[in-house]
Amino acid sequence: MPIRSILEVELFHVWRIDFIGPFPPSFSNSYILETVDYVSKWEEAVALPTNDCRVVVNFLKKNIFTHFGTPRTIISDGGHGSKTSPDNHRKRKKKATGGNIQKSQLRDALYTRLCTNKTILTINGQFPGPTIYATKGEMVIVDVYNRANENITIHWHGVKMPRYPWSDGPEYVTQCPIRPGTKFSQKIVLSDEEGTLWWHAHSDWSRATVHGALIIYPKKKNDYPFPKPRAEVPIILGEWWNSGAKEVMNEFMASGGDPNVSDAFLINGQPGDLYSCSRSDTFRLTVDYGKTYLIRMVNAVMNNVMFFKIANHSFTVVGSDGSYTKPLKSNYIAISPGQTIDFLFESNQKPNHYYMASRVYAGAGNYDNTTTTAIIEYRGNYTPLTSPLLPNFPNFNDTNASANFMGQLRSLANKDHPVDVPLNLTTKLFFTLSINLSPCPNNSCAGPFNEHFSASVNNITFQLPRVDILQAYYRHIRGVYGNDFPDKPPLTFNYTADVIPKDLWRPENGTEVVVLDYNSTVELVFQGTNTVAGVDHPMHLHGYSFYVVGWGYGNFDKDKDPLNYNLVDPPLMETIAVPRNGWTTIRFKANNPGVWMMHCHFERHVSWGMGMAFIVRNGKSRDAKILPPPPDMPRC
C-alpha cells in the first residue's frame, strides 16, 4: 500500500460544518448550524428556522469569512440534520472546546458595535475570546501566535502556576512581550483551582478586547458542592470604546488626566438594546421554567466595579475566584474588575422576557452612567411584554452595597474543602494605596492643579523595567530592580482625613520588590487613602490565593480591628476590592517560589503605577524551587 503524505493543516483553514436537529420549535428555530475548526476546535453555532443552502451561505459570510478569513476546505457529511438532543449538543460543544492543547492566534478583526466599525485585537478573531475548559490539576498548553502588529503577553488570572512563573504573563515582570510574528507556548499549570477563572492580555490596555473565561471542572464530573444545574452559562462583563483602547490609553497618559469613559458596557460582547443602534446586538439566554442555571461571571471591565441583576430573580452565590463558597442568597451581584463569581439562579417566574443587566458602581471619578442588558427568554407559548422587565439597582455610589456583598462571602470550610488560614505569622505588611499627583513636564496636564495623575503603593510608583524582573532574578542580572520596598508607608498620618496636605501627594518612582522567605506566613493590610481622592482598589495578587480575614472603613486600628478577624471560614480569593477610604486584611502562605506581581485591577491605576512585586525565595527541597524556563521564552 502506498504511503500517503501527511497534510499539514493551518489554523482556520479546514472547518467541519453540519446541521443538528430538527428540535421542537423555539422562537421559530428548529435547527442548529455548527462549524468547528479542525485545528483549534473553535466552534461557531447559530439557531435557524430552516436547513437550506441559503442560510448556510449567510452564516459562513457573517460568522466565518468575516472573522477567520476564507477556509481552504469545508467538510460536511452532506446531510440536513440529525436527531441530536440539546443535551447531546452541549456535551459535544464541551468536548470540542476542551483539551490539553490550545491554539491561540492574536490577530486583528473587524467588529461593529454602536454602528461603529473598528479593528480590534482578538484571539482567534473572537470577542470575547474563546472559553478554555480544563480539569482540576491538569496542565494546559496554550500556543500563542502573534499575528498582529503589537507586542502582547497573556496572563492566566487566578492560576497559581506552582513553581512555574514563566507562563504567568505580566509584561516586564515575569516575561518580555511576545513580539509580532513570533510564538510562545505557555504551560498553564493548574493545582487546587476549581470553578471560574479567566485569561487576559497583560500588555498596556490590550485586555479590553483580549480576554476570555477559563473554566476548571472537578476531577469527578459534576462533583459540585451544590445541586447539578440544568446548564452552565459564562457571562463576561466588558466595555466598548468607539475609539481604540490603545488610543484611549495613550491619550490619557499623555494628558495626565483621567481616561475617557467607555461608550458602552457589554454582556458577552454585546451592548444590549438600551443603547442606540444596538437592538440586534443583545445576548439572549433561553431557559426552561423551574430549572436551575449556573452563571459563571467574569468582570473584564477596565475601570469599574459593576452591579448585576436579573429582573424579578434572586441568586445563590456558590463560588468566587476559582474557589467554592457557602451558599449566599442575594438579589444582586457586586463584582470588581478581575473577579469571578459563580451563582445559581432558578427560572421560577411567570414565563416572559426579563432583562439581565449591569451598571457601574462608582465611588469617585468619571464613570459611564449607562446600563448594558441581555435578555432571559422563557420557553413556552405566551406573548412576551413589548419591553422586558428591567431590574432596579443600588445607587451608583452605594459603597455599602458594593462592600457588603463581598463581606458576606464565606469559604465552605468542610472536610472536602478545608481552609488553611495562617495563624502563626512571620511577616506583617501594611500597604497604603494612593492616588497621587506628579509634576507636569509642560505645566499643562489635565490632572488637578495642572499636574499629572499617578498612583502608588506605600508612596512608590511602580516603574516597569526593560528586562523582566523574573529573568533578572533567575539569572542574577544586576540593576533591574531593588529589594527595598518598604513594609509600611514612609509617613504615618490620618490616611482617610477629608483634607490631606498636598505635600503628602507626591510619590517616588521605583522598581522595588518585597523578598519573602519560602513558607513564610504573611499578613498584609491594604489601607486606602484620601490623597487627591479616595476610591476603591481591587487588588490582585499573582501566583497565590489569599484569605480575606477582615475589612472596614476608615483607618485600620492594629489593636482593635484584628479582634474581629474571621479566621474560621474567610473567603479564598485572588482579587479583593479595598473599599473607598477603608482597609482590607489578607493572609497567605508564601509557598510558591518565583516573582509575583501585585497591582490594582483598575487599569488606569496600574497605568499610573499602583503595583509592585514579591520575590518568594526557593525552599530547600527540590520540589520547592523554581522550575527552569522554557526554551522559547520571549527575548527582551
TrEMBL record:
<keyword id="KW-0052">Apoplast</keyword>
<dbReference type="InterPro" id="IPR034289">
    <property type="entry name" value="CuRO_3_LCC"/>
</dbReference>
<keyword id="KW-0964">Secreted</keyword>
<dbReference type="InterPro" id="IPR011706">
    <property type="entry name" value="Cu-oxidase_C"/>
</dbReference>
<dbReference type="Pfam" id="PF07732">
    <property type="entry name" value="Cu-oxidase_3"/>
</dbReference>
<dbReference type="GO" id="GO:0046872">
    <property type="term" value="F:metal ion binding"/>
</dbReference>
<keyword id="KW-0479">Metal-binding</keyword>
<keyword id="KW-0186">Copper</keyword>
<dbReference type="InterPro" id="IPR001584">
    <property type="entry name" value="Integrase_cat-core"/>
</dbReference>
<dbReference type="InterPro" id="IPR011707">
    <property type="entry name" value="Cu-oxidase-like_N"/>
</dbReference>
<dbReference type="InterPro" id="IPR017761">
    <property type="entry name" value="Laccase"/>
</dbReference>
<comment type="similarity">
    <text>Belongs to the multicopper oxidase family.</text>
</comment>
<dbReference type="InterPro" id="IPR033138">
    <property type="entry name" value="Cu_oxidase_CS"/>
</dbReference>
<dbReference type="InterPro" id="IPR008972">
    <property type="entry name" value="Cupredoxin"/>
</dbReference>
<feature type="domain" description="Integrase catalytic">
    <location>
        <begin position="1"/>
        <end position="79"/>
    </location>
</feature>
<dbReference type="Pfam" id="PF07731">
    <property type="entry name" value="Cu-oxidase_2"/>
</dbReference>
<dbReference type="InterPro" id="IPR034285">
    <property type="entry name" value="CuRO_2_LCC"/>
</dbReference>
<dbReference type="InterPro" id="IPR034288">
    <property type="entry name" value="CuRO_1_LCC"/>
</dbReference>
<dbReference type="InterPro" id="IPR045087">
    <property type="entry name" value="Cu-oxidase_fam"/>
</dbReference>
<keyword id="KW-0439">Lignin degradation</keyword>
<keyword id="KW-0325">Glycoprotein</keyword>
<dbReference type="InterPro" id="IPR002355">
    <property type="entry name" value="Cu_oxidase_Cu_BS"/>
</dbReference>
<dbReference type="GO" id="GO:0046274">
    <property type="term" value="P:lignin catabolic process"/>
</dbReference>
<dbReference type="InterPro" id="IPR036397">
    <property type="entry name" value="RNaseH_sf"/>
</dbReference>
<dbReference type="InterPro" id="IPR012337">
    <property type="entry name" value="RNaseH-like_sf"/>
</dbReference>
<protein>
    <recommendedName>
        <fullName>Laccase</fullName>
        <ecNumber>1.10.3.2</ecNumber>
    </recommendedName>
</protein>
<dbReference type="GO" id="GO:0052716">
    <property type="term" value="F:hydroquinone:oxygen oxidoreductase activity"/>
</dbReference>
<dbReference type="Pfam" id="PF00394">
    <property type="entry name" value="Cu-oxidase"/>
</dbReference>
<feature type="region of interest" description="Disordered">
    <location>
        <begin position="76"/>
        <end position="101"/>
    </location>
</feature>
<dbReference type="InterPro" id="IPR001117">
    <property type="entry name" value="Cu-oxidase_2nd"/>
</dbReference>
<comment type="function">
    <text>Lignin degradation and detoxification of lignin-derived products.</text>
</comment>
<keyword id="KW-0677">Repeat</keyword>
<keyword id="KW-0560">Oxidoreductase</keyword>
<dbReference type="GO" id="GO:0048046">
    <property type="term" value="C:apoplast"/>
</dbReference>
